[in-house]
Design brief:
This is Electrogenic sodium bicarbonate cotransporter 4. It comes from Sphaerodactylus townsendi. By secondary structure, this protein is mainly alpha-helical. It has six helices and no strands. The mean pLDDT is about 75.
């Protein structure tokens, strides 16, 4: 199997998967760095992807699979980071309130993902407008 890995078609597939993994790690690593105040960023995401991918490829027998961060994982880690910073919710067992909000347990996950991603995008837009404000005095000339 290792001999076949050095075939030109295998090498091109390996490079394609590598570039697919590295772009995901860089993109979601940057967003994760913003979400966790740079406690976990691009380098940590890239290192985690490399380690998990190496172990998976050697032990699972499927070397051409993309293992890296995705949107739901980013949102989950952002929520986990935010919840771990607020120990009052854990100490008071405030998670019991969720039963009054939703009827079904299956609805809580999509609701939390949608609300947290909306809040993250809104915060990003507010920060972007602070850096690049809208010029209301702009006069178009022809």
């Amino acid at each position: 199997d290792f001999y076949e890995g050095f075939h030109i078609q295998s090498i091109s597939a390996i490079l394609f998967i590598y570039l697919g993994c590295i772009t995901n790690a860089i993109t979601f690593g940057g967003l994760l760095g913003d979400a966790t105040e740079n406690y976990q960023g691009v380098m940590e995401s890239f290192l985690g992807t490399a380690m998990a991918g190496s172990v998976f490829c050697l032990l699972a027998g499927q070397p051409l699979i993309i293992l890296s961060s995705t949107g739901p994982i980013l949102i989950f880690e952002k929520l986990l980071y935010d919840f771990s910073r607020c120990l009052i919710l854990v100490a008071t067992d405030a998670s019991f309130i969720i039963k009054y909000i939703l009827r079904f347990t299956e609805e809580s996950s999509p609701l939390s993902l949608a609300s947290s991603s909306s809040m993250m995008l809104s915060k990003k837009m507010i920060v972007a407008f602070k850096y690049y404000p809208i010029n209301s005095d702009f006069k178009r000339t022809m």
